[in-house]
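Retro notes (design track)

What went well: tokenization of the new backbones is finally stable.
What didn't: we kept losing track of which sequence belonged to which structure.
Fix going forward: every design gets posted as structure first, then sequence, in one message. First example under the new rule, 316 residues:
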């Protein structure tokens, strides 16, 4: 089992703790802690949570992560799971699956995070140590920054997707034949992922805002928690607008392909119309009758070819 443990100190800073030594001080109410579970089997996680005196239902929720947006308030714990972006924004334009989930178990003075698939929380720790400061030495303040960071990531990815869609739209205006169906399918695939993440986050944050418990309340923490909620809502609205943009792109692509097909059919129709009378003439003179006077005439062949050429030119 591999975990990172951190203690939130009085000046709203954060310092690293050993994963074994934080448990007893926490049980005695001597500190506020953040624990990130990096690698852990189901059995090891269950045994470790039992050591923290976590309820059986909370343990079951942590061990059997559902990869869905859910908030479960219990008597002494709150468990919630929220979709997040699993890849950094600098490679968000590639076509991998970006959707990961983070499960969070909140107890009094303790926050436990578990990523699915597993991820490292070091980046958020580095941000807390160097760039951001907790508004208070509490777990809600820590969660506010964590959720704000995750919502900002999906917001940035949606913005990048919008930029890609607009570039493809401009390309469609200038040179529709250069647009490939795979480009539009890629936009649709990424949009579905981002829509799932944004809507899942927005729903989760709305439920969290309504919670009022002694150990988890976001009242008075409007700066970062409201930023998280605003980012998720903005991303959700942006995906709705992008859905229409990508649908229009798809329709324009299909229209362009249909026009190309119609043009090819028109050319084939013209060619068929030109060659139909020529085929008729060739069929007539290809019949094996003995009494065909034209066959005995010396100029029959050039005259027929000349007439066929005139008919073809006239049809054209």
């Amino acid at each position: 089992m591999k975990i990172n443990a951190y203690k939130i100190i009085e000046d709203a800073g954060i310092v690293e703790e050993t994963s074994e030594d934080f448990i007893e001080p926490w049980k005695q109410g001597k500190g506020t802690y953040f624990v990130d579970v990096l690698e852990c089997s189901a059995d090891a996680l269950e045994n470790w949570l039992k050591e923290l005196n976590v309820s059986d239902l909370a343990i079951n929720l942590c061990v059997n992560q559902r990869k869905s947006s859910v908030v479960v308030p219990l008597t002494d714990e709150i468990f919630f799971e929220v979709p997040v972006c699993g890849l950094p924004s600098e490679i968000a334009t590639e076509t991998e699956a970006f959707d990961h989930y983070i499960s969070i178990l909140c107890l009094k003075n303790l926050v436990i995070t578990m990523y699915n698939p597993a991820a490292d929380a070091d980046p958020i720790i580095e941000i807390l140590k160097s760039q951001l400061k907790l508004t208070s030495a509490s777990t809600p303040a820590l969660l506010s920054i964590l959720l704000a960071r995750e919502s900002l990531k999906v917001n940035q990815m949606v913005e990048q997707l919008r930029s890609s869609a607009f570039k493809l739209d401009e390309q469609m205006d200038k040179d529709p034949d250069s647009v490939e169906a795979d480009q539009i399918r890629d936009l649709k695939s990424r949009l579905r992922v981002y829509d799932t993440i944004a809507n899942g986050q927005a729903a989760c944050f709305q439920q969290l805002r309504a919670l009022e418990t002694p150990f988890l309340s976001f009242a008075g923490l409007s700066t970062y928690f409201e930023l998280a909620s605003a980012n998720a809502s903005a991303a959700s609205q942006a995906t709705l607008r992008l859905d229409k943009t990508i649908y229009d792109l798809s329709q324009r692509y299909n229209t362009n392909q249909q026009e190309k097909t119609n043009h090819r059919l028109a050319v084939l129709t013209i060619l068929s119309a030109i060659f139909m009378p020529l085929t008729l003439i060739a069929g007539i003179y290809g019949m094996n009758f003995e009494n065909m006077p034209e066959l005995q005439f010396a100029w029959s062949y050039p005259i027929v070819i000349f007439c066929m050429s005139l008919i073809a030119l006239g049809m054209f």
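Added context from the reviewer: The beta strands are 2-8, 14-17, 32-39, 70-73, 78-85, 99-107, 110-116.
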